[in-house]
Amino acid sequence: MKDTGIVRAVDGLGRLVIPKEIRRTYRIKENDSMEIYTNQEGEIILKKYSPIGELSTFAKEYAESLAQVSGHVAASTDKDSVVAGSGGLKSMRGMEISDALEERMNRRESVIASKGEDSYVPILKEMPGEAESVAVNPILSAGDVVGSVCLIGTKEGEKLGEVDQKLIQAAAVFLGKQMEV
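-> structure tokens emitted (181 positions)
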């Protein structure tokens, strides 16, 4: 059964236009990389490529270590969704990040803020329960933003500090370098 019912022709150069509705739904933007492969049934599968997704096992272990050391919930994201998390974010793998977080990553801005502050950024579009405070640092690989490392304070009145910010900066630099290897 077809989910979309959209039919497109391949042009003389072998190109196929992905319909706007599908690009919007899956947040596919100009210059995004796409992974193309086939399955045993002969279907062609087109998937948005996530460089940090290639390191998901490694990112998961790093998030768990970061959470253990910091005492906060930790997560790694790509430019669209949570790739790995600890604590309450373990089950949120694949959940969509907020537009505000994506915007901050694209501007290469680090964030450390508590709920109610102007600079506060929700991590997910639909966060189950609200975070009291967040610290976010973009992950750069070969000069490009590929994701972020986040710490989330969940206890009432909890504020993240400079040490937390340094922890996620180190994690972001380390994960970025792993993708360049």
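DSSP finds four helices and seven strands in the chain.
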